[in-house]
Structure prediction request, 197 residues.
Amino acid sequence: MRQRRNGMAALSLSVVFCIVVGIAGVGTPYSLNWPSTWRNPLDSGRLWTTVSSDTAFDFDSSAYWSAWGTRHTGIDLKAGPGALVLAIDDGVVVRVAVSADPMQLVIMVVHSGTRGAFLCVYGHVSACAGIAVGAQVQAGQLLGTVTQAGSPCHLHFGINTRGSAASSLAWGRSGATDPRSLGWVDPIPYLQQTLPW
Prediction:
């Protein structure tokens, strides 16, 4: 009888563990139609990363705020470690962070569109050779590769309409501050409404 109870307890714990892992896990990514006028930074994959089929990793998601107590300044695009990251258009590199901490790795490029210059953030990316501050890049040029930062592995992609003036801002999270007040915008609608210059 005691063995049966222990077996039932172990089974119950396994079920609870699976439910908790399922809730905290990746969930179901949803399809993203990348604007055809800009290069896709991942070149092929067009999936946003979601958690438990919600939109936790979208721009300024309330689920992100609930989970981490900070506001999200971009979107997270599903990408495996080593995925190639390309420039969405011609531009100038204004910041490259090199660090042993993948949460700090970032490349920032100023691009121009019909709504003016804007800063594009390619986060959790190890820069390839030649990508340095002041470098001119072309649409589709290789910037670097995705580095595992948290789970699931992803590219943090953000846009700030203040251009190079925003390069000194924290690029992934804005604390309790509304990211819009700092110039951050939801990147996909912004690109859908803007043409390359």
